[in-house]
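G.,

No rush on this.
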Amino acid sequence: MAKSDTATKLDFAPGQKIVYPAHGVGTVTSVDEQKVAGMSLEVYVVSFDQDKMILRVPTHRAIASGMRALAGSKLVEDALKTLGGKARIKRTMWSRRAQEYEAKINSGDLISIAEVVRDLHRMEDQPEQSYSERQLYESALDRMARELAAVESIDHDSAMARLAKSLAKKKAA
């Protein structure tokens, strides 16, 4: 049994920044023991300051939940390059595309999130977005900015400016 535990367990230390797919960037505040239904369970206590939320993730379920360390600088650069690419909009119904975009955002994968930002970004000379398009776009953009800010140790506004600069390159291309 110990062998399967190590294959599904990640080691995060208190103070380490992580990404949880459905919530974005958080900080591991501690690793605690909790009693649940009479059983002892080791959990990561993760704080999401932007949402004023605390999440407890069983250590043996961290991989299955999609929890991961912050992206490396190579992955961040690839995501920024993705922003500058040509939008790939499928010709399916909006409800289907919206579900796909939502799934990409909640996957926690930085490249997938960058694809959503790229596909939903509108230049000044393009038609206005619908409310739901704008909500998905802003959610993906914010999620990406939070991880960029954490990886590069910059504030959220600087990260948003860097993303805007990458999106502006799309116009020049």
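When you get to it, here's the other one too:
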Amino acid sequence: MAVEPSSDPEGMVFDVDTFAVHDGPGIRMAVYLKGCPLSCKWCHSPESQESAPELILIPDRCVMCGECAAACPEGAHRLTGGEHQILRSRCTACGACVEQCQQGALAVKGHRVPASLVVARAARMKPFFDRSGGGVTLTGGEPTLQVDFAEAVLRDCGARGIHTAMETSGACSWERLERLMRHVDLLIYDLKLLDDEQHRHWTGATNEQVLDNASRLCDRNVEFRLALIPGITDARQNLQAVLSFLRDIGSTRLAVLPYNPSAGAKYEWLGRPYELDHSTEGTGDLEAVLRMGRSMGVSITVV
């Protein structure tokens, strides 16, 4: 027997930003969902990639008091030689250590939240949204992985007159994307690499579904975006390929995001290496990118 979906589905959320300015028009409440089918090596939110809760450790806040190790039922903390290590194969992200940390060095990223709670919080902010032209944006991670939760939030916010937006990688079935598009005022669609081999190398997955879905969106309210990762997505060959693809599917606009190297610290918090050079900066030649767009008939804006 088929199980009926919950009338108030829960989602795995790792953050809520009530003053987001890069996730759609106006001032927005950005809801960050955990879980992503891609594993981009430059990901600015590596804590979004895994679908389960994760413990983070901010080393420069740790005073090596040992309270976390004493509280952990799994023995997942090791404090030796002035270094605090988390044995992640043992950690269940139960949060017992977080409760004992007085310095705020530990936190669990990811908790289950009912859709109604998100909608209620958004409804309280509606006067602010109305004044600023803002609203609610679901981002991540990849919202289409939590389609029941995402649909409930978007639908019920829309029913209350709140502007809705969703950011997606497009790495999902068309059926899921189309289902959520019914409740979205603006879709923010992230493009990365047009060459499939390069896409697989840098994101861990093919771009076939990404490009197929994008080609179906030319008549929708969609903003295509491209993060300018030095030597990777901002390479001239890739930029030309992205602009040609957009022109071919009938889109004449692209938003670009300059590279932000600050994500490296988050990888350290998760005990993971950051595979891009911490010192790498963007090319800074945004004017050249804008000129390329104009020459190919695509209007480029910088987010």
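The chain has two domains: 10-51+110-225+261-275, 54-106. The chain has a mean pLDDT of 94.

Enjoy the weekend,
O.
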